[in-house]
Amino acid sequence: MFEDYACIFTRRGADYDSAMRRFPEARREEFAAILRLAAPRAGETLIDLPAGGGYLQDYLDSDAIHLIAIEPAAAFHALCRTRVRESHLAPLTALPLRDQHADLALSLAGLHHESERLRIFREVFRVLRPGGRFAIAEVAVNSAPARFLNEFVNQLSAPGRKRRPRADINLV
User: Fold this and answer.
1) Is the dihedral of CA 19, 22, 26, 31 positive or negative?
2) pLDDT score of 135 more than 90
């Protein structure tokens, strides 16, 4: 059975956030890469989906860009509300925004957890203004990075698991 993003991160959100707080620079290059691709401009409204814990906020000029976090997992949405001025707990297939509301949407490594991507894309394009942009940075299905994230990282961040690295894992 396919487990979607909301199910996965309702269970793993607290562990994920703990790792992000312990190692705040771990994903810096990922965020920098998608922001180079998206190229947000001053005055634009940017939708981050799924927003995770609202971590993108740390990489934006909050006075210049209006960030809207859309997060389907309640655990992550609670974190978004502490970091992002506007956040919504909502499925990615039913964005709680009016038509043509935003200039830019971005998604960083979350869509591979979703089975209804076409519905998500339709929703994103509904809320984008004419000429709006949608930047996606994603892992390929069944690729080495996908297996690393969905198998290895998942296994090590399972609820109740001790957080001590195994002897045969080399952490850099």
Assistant:
1) positive
2) yes
Q: With 90 as the cut, is the pLDDT of residue 32 above it?
A: yes
Q: What angle do CA 146, 83, 99 make, to 5 degrees?
A: 75
Strand partners, 87: 69
- Residue 70: CB atoms within 10 A of its CB come to 27
In order of 38, 46, 90, 106, the CA distances from 74 in angstroms are: 26, 21, 9, 20
pLDDT, tens digit, for every residue of 85-113? 999 999 999 999 999 999 999 999 888 78
Query: Is-contact 106 48, C-beta < 8 A?
Result: yes
Provide the percentage of residues in the chain whose pLDDT is more than 90. Answer: 56
Taking the complete model, does pTM exceed 0.85, yes or no? Answer: no
CA 128, chain centre distance (Å): 18
Domain spans in the chain, listed from the N-terminal domain onward: 5-156
Determine the CATH number of domain 5-156.
Answer: 3.40.50.150
